[in-house]
Amino acid sequence: MSKDNTIVEPTQAHFIIEGEPASKANSRRSVLIGGKPRFIKSKKALNYEKMFKDQIQFCKLNCFEGDVGVEIKIFYASRRPDLDESLILDLMQGFAYENDRQVKEK
User: Fold this and answer.
1) Apex CA 97: angle with CA 17 and CA 66, to 5°?
2) Mapping DSSP to helix (H, G, I), strand (E, B) and coil, where does residue 13 land?
3) Which are the contacts of 99, defined by CB distance < 8 A and separation ≥ 6?
4) What is the largest distance, in Å, between two alpha-carbon atoms of the chain?
5) Where are the domains of the chain?
6) The pLDDT of residue 101 is above 80
7) I need a labelling partner for 29 at 20 to 30 A (CA). Which of 47, 48, 66, 93 fits?
8) Tens of pLDDT along 49-71?
């Protein structure tokens, strides 16, 4: 394992992102912009996105091509949140793979 907690092998990458992910289903809020309703990410989703990007910038990884399988382990502080890896899969786009449609196995 390298100093930045990244292991890169020909077919695998392992990394740890700290922080509690927001549920994508609950990650939008409605606001008025120019008198028109718009949906934007919630503060919790925006905070997690920033935290994710701040941590992932130190990982040296080339995007996987073709279909990929992903194993995500999420540890919540309580049993309250619904398990939702969608935001994490979105944030891994352009880093681990080009598009989350490449994920064929979770």
Assistant:
1) 140
2) strand
3) 93
4) 52
5) 7-105
6) yes
7) 93
8) 999 999 988 777 788 888 999 99
